[in-house]
Amino acid sequence: EAHLVESGGGSVQVGGSLRLSCVFSGFAFDDFAVGWFRQAPGKEREVVSCVLNNDGNSYYAEPAKDRFSISYNWHKKTVDLQMNGLRPDDTAVYYCYARGGGNYAVRYWGNGTLVTVSS
Q1: pLDDT score of 102
Q2: CA 39, CA 37: separation in Å to the nearest integer?
Q3: If I label 44, which of 28, 88, 91, 109 is the partner at 20 to 30 A Cα–Cα?
Q4: How far, in Å, CA of 65 to CA of 22, rounded?
Q5: Taking the mean position of all CA atoms in its chain, how far away is CA 14?
Q6: Position 1 confidence tier, pLDDT thresholds 50, 70, 90
């Protein structure tokens, strides 16, 4: 059974920084992606950033470019998201996720961690 556990959320003022961490376990895909989605109040869940285990390539959604940085440790099975220059529209529940299997069709989710950015 897959487990993804997030930590590091909290409240910060505009321009501040937070670092989210996720520890994942319980799945055994040869190739997988891990990363972060977020869901703001009243909005759909959207991808923030992800990284592939096979080559380390990473992806950032437009709002995250130049402000967020994803890092990973495959040995420790962790993936972190460093968020700088936070804005009120970054306020959301941030979910760690993993995708694997054929066509990366299998998805696992953490329970989420709340990030609140106030002005």
Answers
A1: 86
A2: 7
A3: 28
A4: 20
A5: 20
A6: confident
